[in-house]
Specification:
Length: about 90
Amino acid sequence: MPAAKAVAGKEIDTFLGFKFITSNRLNSDGTSRQVVAWAQDGMALAIGAEPSARITERDDKSYSTQIYYSATFGATRLQEEMVVEIACNE
């Protein structure tokens, strides 16, 4: 089976050192889809504040359980050459 079919059929998730992640949130300019690739060392993730969680009851909703969770995250490129965007024809 060709590699492209195996990737599309979700039979493999790594190929030539790349880990493939399925996403429906990639940009398109109408003729091609912008796909991104990066080396892990070229990216950084920061946690802005400690996550906050609360579980309470709502008396106005027949004492249903209400769950609240809040967190702040951010990511950025550390090294420009380790992050690339590739235009792929569909």
